[in-house]
């Protein structure tokens, strides 16, 4: 049913976006998509993850026979290989090699890995990549397209460079990267604080890239990179709650517990726009943001959650949160229910809790899954006055076993 859930539209002041093409039920999988482009987040990640599918590697990994720097988790991934220009740069085919590539890439390793991978795409996929949107107002950046272009040319044999290779084409590619890439994160570990979690890879999904940002989203995305079987790098987008036909479907581009000033700084720096969603309009009036001492937002979030009453029944609660009216004054935070219901408090991971897909009979699952730590939580625990403790029986089942069955 995911294929008929969304339709693309031009939205005033927001560019292209995705709207609900029909009424969507909470927990529905509304988009599943394979990556157009997949590339490592850093050279340091190469020994830890398969260079074809980015699963965690075991000690029995097979090295790439060409560059010997990349590794593969299976014969099928070894046959699929990894981006040819990246492999050439790692093997020293253009005078590079891992050491020279690392030296050339600093301090711009990530965009260089992107360019080497993008230039490796077959022509039809390369054209699709170039057709993706760029920020209307390019975000400020210290990337120098001319320098990065020269690095690519120095690291790769000239005969491997694609037709049309030029500084202008490199600049055009770089404009697509930051605003369209999704992070595929390293496995969650409770001892690693949220700001220190790293990406194992980046992926670009043409349709998912149309999903705009909202600081109180109505959908969230999952990646299941370590699950067995094919298509483990697909993006999976699920609805947090019921979405009426014609309403825009939005994600949050970062953890929803961030404070107003931090959200706006990130959106301006990385995406080149200023958010004017309902939450931002309310929080922009808060004097406490101006007086903030630079904390990470945890105290503010705890206060918001304690002030919320939890609510009963998803539809009425969300209508009140998302409407223009409501009984809360401009000085109050009108969305406490959202954080109580959809923000994971397990190990301070601050992921999003999305309902599992509806049951075969169409009834809601009443079980929520975190898109960061993978823990499961029953709805009655979420609606409990104190937010509830995690259900040991459900968690004991193992989130991965449920994930694979659901999808």
From TrEMBL:
Family matches, as Pfam families: SET
PROSITE patterns: SET
SUPFAM superfamilies according to UniProt: SET domain (SSF82199)
Region (Disordered): 286-330
Record field: transmembrane: none
Compositionally biased region (Acidic residues): 290-330
Name of the featured protein: SET domain-containing protein
Species: Oryza meridionalis
């Amino acid at each position: 049913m995911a294929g008929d859930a969304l339709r693309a539209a031009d939205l005033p002041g927001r560019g292209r976006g995705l709207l609900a093409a029909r009424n969507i039920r909470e927990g529905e999988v509304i988009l599943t998509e394979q990556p157009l482009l997949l590339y490592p987040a850093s050279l340091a990640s190469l020994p830890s993850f398969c260079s074809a599918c980015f699963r965690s590697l075991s000690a029995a990994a097979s090295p790439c026979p060409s560059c010997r720097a990349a590794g593969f988790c299976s014969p099928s991934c070894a046959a699929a290989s990894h981006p040819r220009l990246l492999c050439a740069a790692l093997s020293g085919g253009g005078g590079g090699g891992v050491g020279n590539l690392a030296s050339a890439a600093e301090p711009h390793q990530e965009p260089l890995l992107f360019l080497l991978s993008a230039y490796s795409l077959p022509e039809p996929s390369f054209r699709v990549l170039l057709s993706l949107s760029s920020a209307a107002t390019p975000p400020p950046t210290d990337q120098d397209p001319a320098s990065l272009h020269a690095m690519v040319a120095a690291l790769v044999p000239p005969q491997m460079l694609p037709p049309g290779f030029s500084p202008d084409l490199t600049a055009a590619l770089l404009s697509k990267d930051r605003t369209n890439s999704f992070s595929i994160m390293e496995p969650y570990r409770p001892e690693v604080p949220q700001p220190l979690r790293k990406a194992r890879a980046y992926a670009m999904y043409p349709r998912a890239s149309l999903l705009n940002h909202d600081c109180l989203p109505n959908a969230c995305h999952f990646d299941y990179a370590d699950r067995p079987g094919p298509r483990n790098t697909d993006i999976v987008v699920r609805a947090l709650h019921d979405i009426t036909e014609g309403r825009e479907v939005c994600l949050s581009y970062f953890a929803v517990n961030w404070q107003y000033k931090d959200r706006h700084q990130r959106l301006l720096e990385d995406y080149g726009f200023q958010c004017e969603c309902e939450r931002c309009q309310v929080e922009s009036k808060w004097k406490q943001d101006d007086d903030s001492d630079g904390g990470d937002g945890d105290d503010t979030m705890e206060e918001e959650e304690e002030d919320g009453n939890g609510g009963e029944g998803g539809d009425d609660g969300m209508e009140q949160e998302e409407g223009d009216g409501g009984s809360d004054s401009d000085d109050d935070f009108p969305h406490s229910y959202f954080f109580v219901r959809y923000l994971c408090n397990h190990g301070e991971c601050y992921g999003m809790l999305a309902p599992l897909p509806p049951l075969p009979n169409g009834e809601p699952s009443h079980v929520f899954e975190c898109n960061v730590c993978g823990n499961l939580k029953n709805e009655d625990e979420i609606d409990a006055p104190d937010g509830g403790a995690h259900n040991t029986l459900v968690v004991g089942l193992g989130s991965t076993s449920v994930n694979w069955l659901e999808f």
